[in-house]
Amino acid sequence: MATSVESSISAGAKYEPVIGLEVHVQLLTASKIFCSCSTRFGDPPNTNVCPVCLGLPGALPVLNRKAVEFATLAAMALNCEIRETSIFARKNYFYPDLPKGYQISQYDKPLAEHGFIDIESSSGKKKIGITRVHLEEDAGKSLHDGFVGAGETTAIDLNRSGVPLIEIVSEPDIVTPDEAYEYLTRLKEIILYTGVSDVNMEEGSLRCDANVSVRPRGEKKFGTKTEVKNVNSFRFIREALEYEIERQIEVIEGGGKVTQETRLYNSVEGKTYSMRSKEQAHDYRYFPEPDLLPLVVDEKWRAQIRSTLPELPESRRKRIVSDYGITAQDAHTLTLTKSLADQFESAAKAAKNPKRVANLVQSELTGRLKAKGLEIEQSPITMKGVASSADLVESGTISGKMLKDLYDLCFDRGKDFPEVYEQEGRPAQSRDTSAIEKILDEVIAANPKQVEQYRAGKKTVAAFFVGQVMKASKGQANPQLVNELVAKKLG
User: Fold this and answer.
1) 110 in Cβ contact with 85 (< 8 Å)
2) Taking burial as the number of CB atoms within 10 A of a residue's CB, which of 121, 180, 268, 424 is the most buried?
3) Which 8-state DSSP code applies to residue 477?
4) Which residue, 98, 117, 226, 261, is CA-closest to 179?
């Protein structure tokens, strides 16, 4: 007799999930989308408000130009087609934290359409389509205190009301929770590189709703979908999808029907719960926003925006593998953010051996960061510090054991490598010219081929001789003096 686990696996094999994601990204403007109120996070409740974002009668919206530029830049980075003319619409629904009783958004004529993101799936590289990217304003925030039926109170903070958002809607091309996780990770990286948002999930700068349904494997018609809302991490989104897929399969296998509804995910229990029936587009009674003209982003403006588009993560990874001879894994780690990639490239260009810089990040830095629960951007050792340490190892000034000890001290003290090296690691250096010359003479005599290369014009070979002298002197020779003697002897 089949066990319940076997039955679950068998039932799962009969069905395939269909997943679409709606991601809201807060744009990093100083002011709101239709007024001059600040978007600063953490200010006292209801202090960054005015008649426009409070929805008072007679107040008229004025579109924030920077919000349009940021939205367009993000859409370009996501390979979207930019509409020359898009239309703002009123999305009508009542919520306590939506003072106007409607949200200004875009509906049938959004800013951008038909984009995509490439992800790595279990079957290799896969293209996930992006249906649309559109601009809209955020609602306020409801703050609940207590429990329903036991004196619960709700406070409203309207500071966030009117903050500029883009909504990025994927095609239903995602078929596993892992693909959803990978898509969100790639999307966050791209948005970070453009600089249009800090995508801070804790502050609400990035929020994701997931639409999921299941259907018999091979079936073309979609099943009934549910929407999972208010999930505050990519890991929880993956867990919520895993639970919801299994729940829907159990409902169908039990002879029931999946209800189209909005559900909330409880991360403590690992379960989703029904919140309300899912609205259809007609429930919102969309109509063109009467207080705003059509948004026109003409070719000249698009060209100006496109000129600010940075090199994006995937193309940058390929280039630095080629430029610096590092592995794809190293390239991935070193390009997680634009800031980190910029630091690495700056350090790698100055370092004697860029590959050693990358190796030290993977072999010495990441393990210590993981043990301390730090992200690589929070490392006390900067990329410049890693490059400095790499050069010292390369020249033989310090050993691998010394480097490990110095890295440990950096993390213990929260200081960068050059500072700790000056305090603890610098060996007493010899400026005994005759002793160093003796060592150098022995190195030159033992390496006639390198001498010939140097004298034939390959001046970079000088680093080889410096390294050999430093090793022979156990790091005691003064590197500057060694460089001077190498140039003198070989010249």
Assistant:
1) no
2) 180
3) B
4) 117
**Sign of torsion over alpha carbons 320, 322, 323, 326:** positive
For 135, the enclosing helix (H) or strand (E) is strand 124-137
**What value does the CA radius of gyration of the chain take, rounded to a whole number of Å?**
29
d(Cα 351, Cα 174) in Å, to the nearest integer?
42
Domain made up of 433-490: CATH architecture: Orthogonal Bundle (1.10)
Nearest 5 degrees, angle CA 203-CA 204-CA 208?
145
Alpha helices (H) along 260-364: 299-306, 313-324, 328-334, 338-350, 354-360
Gap between the terminal Cα atoms of the chain: 86
CA distance 208 to 22: 6
Is the Cβ–Cβ distance between 210 and 19 less than 8 Å? yes
CB contact at 8 A, 223 and 248 = yes
- Confirm if 319 and 311 have CB atoms less than 8 A apart: yes
Amino acid at 284: Y
Residue 105, both tokens: 């958004």
Q: For 412-469, how does the pLDDT look when each residue is reduced to its tens digit (9 = 90+)?
A: 999 999 999 988 866 555 667 888 888 888 989 999 998 888 888 888 888 888 888 8
Which pair of structure tokens corresponds to residue 437? 């010359």
The Cα angle at residue 427 between residues 425 and 430, in degrees rounded to 5: 160
CB 457 within 8 A of CB 468: no
Cα distances from 75 to residues 159, 311, 491, in angstroms, run: 26, 15, 57
Other CB atoms within a 10 A radius of the CB of residue 123 amount to 8
- 39: Cβ contacts below 8 Å, ≥ 6 apart: 26, 29, 30, 31, 32, 48, 163, 164
Does residue 411 sit in helix, strand or coil?
A: helix
Q: List the domain boundaries for the chain.
A: 16-303, 313-425, 433-490
**How many angstroms separate the CA atoms of 233 and 80, rounded?**
26
What span, in angstroms and rounded, lies between the C-alpha atoms of 476 and 426?
9
Token code pair at residue 357: 């810089």
CA distance 129 to 172: 8
Give the 3-state secondary structure of residue 275.
Answer: strand
Query: Running DSSP on this structure, what letter comes out for residue 464?
Result: H
Amino acid letter for position 190 = I
φ, ψ of residue 251 to 5 degrees: the values are -60, -45
pLDDT tens, residue by residue, 135-171: 999 999 988 775 555 567 889 999 999 999 999 999 9
pLDDT value for 184: 97
Please, are residues 348 and 354 in contact by the beta-carbon 8 Å criterion?
A: yes
> How many Å apart are CA 54 and CA 137, to the nearest integer?
12
